[in-house]
Specification:
The protein is 49% helix and 15% strand. It is an alpha+beta fold. Helix 1 packs across helix 3 (82-89). It is flat and about 70 Å long. It is found in: Endoplasmic reticulum membrane.
């Protein structure tokens, strides 16, 4: 985001015939926009394997294309011709509306979703660590998790109740 470059990102799946057929065109696009001094960059994400980031971008089918310019995200919905896509990357995207910031992958909801995915992955890794490394059964581990989450939820509810309770002023 902060590198000053414009990124065209393709979400693809290795099993997708359209993606496989589009590969030479995408290579041509990369050759056309990525040269010394250019601020355009090209990236590919295997959306079938990287489901969390595909979810953040609301990818509904493959291939899907998004252009990222700083905090703004534009979905490319034009022709799949190399010339059209190169024109879009080289500034044509400025004639289209970006995704609404609040709902874009770079906006608040996208950032919250990213945090939830990261925390969820850490919880799952911790679960496997407890079962594999510590030797606990999955049932015991699940009971420990449930107790920990219930305790955490109770502490958060008490904290919120204390924070929103009106303070009595002594006069």
């Amino acid at each position: 985001i902060r590198d000053g470059n414009v990124w065209l990102v393709e979400f693809y799946a290795s099993w997708c015939g359209h993606c496989q057929n589009f590969e030479p065109v995408y290579q041509q696009i990369a050759s056309s926009v990525h040269y010394p001094g250019s601020t355009a960059r090209i990236a590919k994400i295997d959306g079938d394997k990287e489901r969390a980031i595909s979810s953040r971008f609301a990818v509904a089918g493959f291939p899907s294309f998004f252009l990222i310019d700083g905090w703004s995200v534009y979905e490319y919905k034009g022709s799949r011709k190399a010339s059209s896509m190169v024109s879009f990357v080289k500034g044509g995207y400025k004639d289209t509306e970006p995704l609404p910031f609040w709902a874009s992958p770079m906006g608040p909801l996208g950032q919250i979703q990213a945090v939830l995915v990261i925390v969820g992955a850490q919880v799952i890794n911790f679960f496997y660590w407890m079962t594999d490394e510590m030797g606990l059964s999955p049932t015991v581990t699940a009971i420990i998790f449930a107790g920990g989450f219930m305790f955490s939820g109770l502490v958060i509810m008490i904290f919120i109740a204390i924070m929103v309770t009106p303070k009595i002023k002594d006069d």
